[in-house]
Amino acid sequence: MSDAPLIEFRDVTKTFASGSRQVTALDGIDLSIHAGDVHAIIGYSGAGKSTLVRLINALEPVTSGSVLIDGTDITTLGERRLRELRLGIGMIFQQFNLLRSRTVFGNVAYPLKIAGWDKDTRKVRVAELLRFVGLSEKAWDYPDQLSGGQKQRVGIARALATNPKILLADESTSALDPETTGEVLRLLKRVNTELGVTIVVITHEMEVVRAIADRVAVLDAGRVVEQGAVLDVFAEPKTDTTRRFVETVLHDRPDGEDLERLRARHTGRLVTAGIRDDRRIGTVLSGAERKHGVRFEIVYGGIKELAGEPIGRLTLELTGPEAGVDALVADLREVTEVEELTA
Ligand SMILES: Nc1ncnc2c1ncn2[C@@H]1O[C@H](COP(=O)(O)OP(=O)(O)OP(=O)(O)O)[C@@H](O)[C@H]1O
Question: Are 85 and 35 a contacting pair, CB within 8 Å?
């Protein structure tokens, strides 16, 4: 497999005219999405996520810069080539966007009809897709008879009908309860691993990123403020925006009342240390008393598993001579991120 990205944004800017004002939705985006990845784009409302995804299938023109798919700059393509391009890109939506007047079968068959597949081939393909998403028994139901999770599974089957290489999922689980969200995310992961489809997940929920993404880009006010492997971004978020998103999943950093309570109850120095390679941190801590005359107590923390690795933070109270605590904090900084919490 080549290293060239499947989707690449090069210095992409997108502005909209809003009355007499110009709104900059995307501001100098550089982003690479590689074949075979589940790549999440996370950001708050208005960050530019939907605009970004609409540039991937050229539903909107860029204002400047280029968007390359498989090495082709799609910003210069004519309508006919764009139609071909869009056949290779499936999309699913927050509100499912199913045709209410058609059955599940009819909805999934629809893109095949548009693409000119004959009736028999359509039938075989739809049956195969419904089997894959676990809805064979619902083929003759109408969307209104389905639960939210089932509707999204129909959406996924329809998006995959023409065998796209890319699936764009725009807030695809935001209308679903947590349990159904899990089901849909597991199905998307299967789409990725079993069918080899590259998935771009647009979300404002870090839990979605944790659950299925390999890589993530954090979008803030039209700019990519951070991007990388999900594990790295969770372990060492570099911007406040990212840190806030990570917090929503890990709940591992005391703040507000929790922090006040800890400060009132513990007189030693409070530090929060990132857990990643726990053995190295364990080694530093187990030598704390012997090396520096410092005792430690774990007073707060949360650890989750991400891609098979423990990730999270522990808050420690360190008690001992000032110089010893300083030396221990310095040792900890060698192996992980450390934040002082003492006011
Ligand atoms: N067609 C449009 N005309 C004018 N402004 C637009 C248009 N589309 C988007 N914008 C503006 O661009 C900015 C980014 O919007 P976008 O919908 O991409 O953000 P988002 O991150 O997807 O937010 P949300 O999660 O709320 O959908 C916002 O300020 C929005 O108001």
Answer: no
In ligand 1, the atom with minimum distance to the C-alpha of 52 is 18
For 52, the token pair is 């970004």
Model pLDDT, residue 343: 65
To which H or E segment does residue 73 belong? strand 72-73
Choosing from 12, 16, 220 the residue with most ligand 1 atoms within 8 A of its CB, the one to mutate for a pocket test is: 16
pLDDT for 278: 64
Which parts of the chain register pLDDT below 50?
1
User: What is the model's pLDDT at position 196?
Assistant: 96
Interface predicted TM-score (ipTM): 0.94
- Give the span between the Cα atoms of 97 and 152, in whole angstroms: 9
| Residue among 37, 38, 35 at smallest CA distance from 6 | 35
Count of positions (residues) in the chain = 343
| Residue-range domains of the chain with CATH | 7-249 (3.40.50.300), 252-340 (3.30.70.260)
Six-digit token string for 288: 């704390």
How many angstroms is it from 46 CA to the middle of ligand 1?
5
Whole-prediction pTM: 0.84
Atom 2 in ligand 1: which residue has the minimum CA distance? 16
Distance (Å, rounded) from C-alpha 318 to C-alpha 303? 20
How far apart are alpha carbons 309 and 332 in whole angstroms?
Answer: 19
Residue 207's pLDDT is what?
87
Ligand 1 pocket mutation pick from 12, 14, 23 by most atoms within 8 angstroms of CB: 23
Cβ contacts of residue 59 below 8 Å, gap of 6+?
A: none
Q: What sign does the CA torsion over 330, 331, 337, 343 have?
A: negative
Structure tokens at 80: 């006919």
Reduced to 3 states (helix: H, G, I; strand: E, B; else coil), residue 312 is strand
What was the pLDDT predicted at 275? 82
